[in-house]
């Protein structure tokens, strides 16, 4: 996927941003937790139109970047060795890599045990086993949480997604595709349940309100009045 990088001058601020072009009709601006600004734009949208929209949203972009800046610096990259901590559903677990006759991952009293054969005992292999385990748990947990979140809406079936896609996303926690498929970041398995529910509910609201305007916020506030607290906990936990 081709990405374009540009910079917009807004007063004394320089807003560096990235454009991702997709076959869609609307333009979306997102400020990610790493402070980057991403614009998802229609394939034929001219740069002038994109920058005009950015100027209208510049004050909001600056506020969002300041919000995420409070969580910097973020957790350093994991090395996938015994002794370091890893999150699962919002709790810290100590990683313990142990030799075994078959490869598996299990939770045991505050530890994540990764059983691995001596022949393949490398950080890269430990990482793959752990990522596969998170993904397998996500395929169980996410559908359960979707059902729980649907009950928050007065007419649940109107907000039921047409499918669930679990991916390793580079920046976003989730999105709702134009076809109504819910896309969730597998890394959410590290977040607390109430924060997972926030992301899911946020995206379900996009089925009715495919934007982040006042009508979207009104709907989110109605079905999940404490969404801001859940979002803050998500960012603090996953920083």
Q: How would you describe this structure to a colleague?
A:
- By secondary structure, the protein is an alpha/beta fold.
- It has two domains: 3-69, no CATH class; 85-238, 2-Layer Sandwich (Zincin-like), CATH 3.30.2010.10.
- Helix content is 37%, strand content 27%.
- It is built from five helices and eleven strands; from the N terminus they run E-E-E-E-H-E-E-E-E-H-E-E-E-H-H-H.
- The chain has helices spanning 47-69, 123-150, 193-208, 214-223, 227-238, and strands at residues 3-10, 13-22, 28-31, 37-42, 85-88, 91-99, 104-108, 111-116, 163-167, 174-176, 181-185.
- A four-stranded mixed β-sheet has the order 1-2-4-3. It has a four-stranded mixed β-sheet with strand order 5-6-8-7, with helices on one face.
- Strand 5 (85-88) and strand 6 form a beta hairpin.
- Helix 2 crosses helix 3 (193-208), helix 3 packs across helix 4 and helix 3 (193-208) crosses helix 5 (227-238).
- The longest helix has 28 residues, at 123-150.
- The chain starts with a strand and ends with a helix.
- 21% of the residues are buried.
Map the helices and strands.
Elements: E1 3-10, E2 13-22, E3 28-31, E4 37-42, H1 47-69, E5 85-88, E6 91-99, E7 104-108, E8 111-116, H2 123-150, E9 163-167, E10 174-176, E11 181-185, H3 193-208, H4 214-223, H5 227-238
Parallel strand pairs: 2-4, 6-8, 9-11
Antiparallel strand pairs: 1-2, 3-4, 5-6, 7-8, 10-11
Helix pairs in contact: 2-3, 3-4, 3-5
Mean pLDDT: 91
Number of domain units: 2
CATH topology-level name of the largest domain: Zincin-like
Biggest sheet features: 4 strands, mixed
Low-pLDDT segments: none
End-to-end Cα distance: 27 Å
CATH architecture of the largest domain: 2-Layer Sandwich
């Amino acid at each position: 996927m081709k990405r374009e990088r540009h910079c917009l001058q807004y007063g004394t601020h320089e807003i560096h941003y990235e454009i991702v072009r997709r076959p869609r009709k609307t333009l979306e601006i997102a400020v990610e937790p790493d402070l980057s600004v991403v614009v998802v734009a229609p394939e034929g949208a001219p740069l002038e139109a994109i920058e005009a929209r950015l100027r209208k949203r510049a004050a909001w972009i600056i506020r969002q970047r300041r919000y995420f800046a409070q969580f910097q610096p973020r957790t350093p990259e994991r090395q996938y060795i015994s002794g370091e901590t890893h999150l699962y559903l919002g709790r810290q677990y100590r990683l313990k890599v142990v030799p075994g006759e078959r490869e598996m991952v299990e939770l045991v009293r505050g530890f994540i045990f990764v059983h691995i054969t001596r022949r393949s005992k490398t950080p890269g292999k430990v990482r793959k086993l752990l990522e596969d385990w998170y993904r397998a748990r996500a395929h169980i947990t996410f559908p359960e949480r979707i059902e729980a979140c649907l009950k928050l809406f007065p007419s649940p079936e109107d907000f039921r997604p047409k499918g669930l896609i679990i991916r390793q996303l580079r920046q976003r926690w989730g999105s709702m595709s134009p076809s109504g498929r819910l896309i969730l970041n597998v890394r959410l398995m590290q977040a607390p349940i109430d924060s997972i529910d926030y992301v899911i509910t946020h995206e379900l609201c996009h089925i009715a309100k495919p934007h982040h305007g006042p009508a979207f916020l009104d709907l989110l506030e109605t079905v999940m009045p404490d969404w801001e607290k859940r979002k803050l906990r998500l960012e603090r936990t996953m920083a």
